[in-house]
Specification:
The protein is an alpha+beta fold. The chain has 19 helices and twelve strands. The chain has one domain: Cytochrome p450, CATH 1.10.630. Strands 1-2-8-5-3 form a five-stranded mixed β-sheet. Strands 4-12-9 form a three-stranded antiparallel β-sheet. It has a two-stranded antiparallel sheet with strand order 6-7. Helix 7 packs across helix 8, helix 8 packs antiparallel against helix 13 and helix 11 crosses helix 13. The protein is globular, with a radius of gyration of 22 Å. The chain starts with a helix and ends with a strand.
Length: about 450
């Protein structure tokens, strides 16, 4: 590992000395299995900007300095590629996913995808979120334990299927739900996540091999998605309020609709990026709320000040302490530890350093959120910090930033707030994990170890 200031005289990445005491392969295994410890050790030894090398990734600069992040996020987006740096998730979302696009195509696709996640449409989704939360939580039994992440995954997946696909309960709805969960569970342990990081392991050795299982589930999911698209086209049902209908009726500047493959890849992106991430964040929120009684009391006091059942969803979303709890949840253990990488298309100066074309720049969300100069006592869960001051988009960045900021950020926050408000207003829960929980890798994201075990103490209404 080499500090940036030690290598600025090197004109190209190829000429940089390798500062690792261990092999790239071993370093990658460590960052997969013990991400927090390794990232914090690296920052402690090398500061806020340093070089790093991991398997399946080129040499990259890891950044957790807000000033450097500001320089990066406010630079002309045309200086960077980003899509090609996200190849690790191509098996999950497909090559036409917004996440893998660059240039004009990325700009156009973002324009097509943005409208459904903002404005009046959000209000319509509010009732869907409430109804699904009530339906899932109604299956909980007093005194019986349940795993928060599984329940929250059920809620967030159904929200996506209803709001994105416009699917109602039925055979295809259940099939998509089941297959997607099984597909994502391929990577539900840190060790199985190595499949994504090591391309040499991505071999279909038959239905019982790990990658073979994943491929077959993906094929089945593709089949279900294409069936839905074809039925809609044949029946002329592309005038609905759901996001699939909006995408099917959208036209680019040349008047062309999206192809079936493009539709499939964007739907997979929303299914993958939009449901598991929110489910993990909700599981963490429920953990912290019940791990710290003073947070729960303060939040209940605020929720009891309005009629949650009949309140306008927008009014619930504006509750200040509820917002602070959600923000602090995303700060202390962000679901994704890194923003999407930027790859230099040309030589560039950053913080006074000359960087060569082709260099990968990776903003580390986790390390930025753990800076004591921005967040005093960073290991402490303290929502009040978000009431006391406003953080810049270069200090608080759970959804990434600039032209690569998650388009579903507002939707995710809205969903988190409504789900939490609904659950806490109707159930008194008890945390069974009365120990500090750590994040563990689940694919390329990070979830609470064990999923957070809770039990219903009492149904409140």
């Amino acid at each position: 590992m080499i500090k940036l200031k030690e290598i600025t005289s090197q004109p190209t990445v190829a000429q940089l000395p390798n500062g690792f005491q261990e092999s790239k392969w071993l370093q990658t295994i460590k960052i997969i299995l013990q991400p927090l410890q390794n990232l914090e050790n690296l920052r402690q030894r090398y500061g806020d900007i340093f070089y790093s090398e991991f398997n399946s990734f080129p040499t990259q600069i890891i950044i957790s300095d807000p000033q450097a992040i500001q320089e990066l996020f406010t630079a002309d987006p045309k200086l960077f590629e980003s899509g090609s740096g996200n190849e690790i998730i191509q098996p999950l979302v497909g090559g036409n996913s917004l996440i893998l696009l660059d240039g004009d195509r990325h700009v156009q696709q973002r324009k097509l995808l943005m409208p459904p996640f903002h404005g009046e449409r959000m209000r319509a989704y509010g009732q869907i979120i409430r109804d699904i939360t009530e339906q899932v939580s109604s299956q909980w039994t007093v005194g019986k334990p349940f795993v928060a992440r599984s329940s929250m995954q059920d809620i967030s997946l159904q929200v996506i299927l209803r709001s994105v696909f416009g699917l109602k309960e039925g055979e295809r709805y259940q099939q998509i739900k089941q297959v997607l969960v099984e597909m994502l569970n391929t990577f539900n342990h840190p060790l199985s996540a190595t499949l994504l990081f090591f391309k040499s392991l991505q071999k279909d050795l038959g239905a019982w091999s790990p990658w073979g299982k994943f491929v077959r589930r993906r094929q089945l999911l593709d089949q279900l998605i294409y069936q839905e698209i074809n039925e809609r086209r044949e029946q002329g049902k592309i005038d609905g309020e759901d996001i699939l209908s909006l995408l099917m009726s959208a036209r680019d500047e040349a008047g062309q609709p999206m192809t079936d493959v493009e539709l499939r890849d964007e739907l997979m992106t929303m299914l993958f990026a939009g449901h598991e991430t929110t489910a993990i964040a909700l599981a963490w929120a429920l953990y912290w709320i019940h791990y710290l009684p003073e947070v729960r009391e303060k939040l209940l006091q605020e929720l009891n000040s309005i009629d949650i059942t009949n309140a306008d969803p927008m009014a619930i979303a504006q509750l200040p302490y509820l917002n602070a709890v959600c923000c602090e949840t995303l700060r202390i253990y962000p679901v994704a530890f890194f923003c999407f990488p930027r790859i230099l298309r040309t030589d560039m100066q950053l913080m006074g350093y000359d960087l060569p074309k082709g260099m990968y720049l990776s903003v580390c969300v986790y390390l930025t959120h753990q800076r004591p100069d921005i967040y005093p006592e960073p290991k402490r869960f303290r929502p009040e910090r978000f009431l006391e001051r406003q953080f810049s988009p270069y200090e608080f960045l759970p959804f990434g930033g600039a032209n690569r900021r998650c388009i579903g950020a507002a939707f995710a926050m809205f969903e988190m707030k409504l789900v939490l408000a609904n659950i806490l207003s109707h159930y008194s829960l008890e945390l069974l994990d009365k120990v500090p929980l750590q994040p563990v890798r689940r694919g390329i994201v990070f979830a609470p170890s064990g999923g957070v075990h809770l039990a219903v103490k009492e149904k409140l209404s």
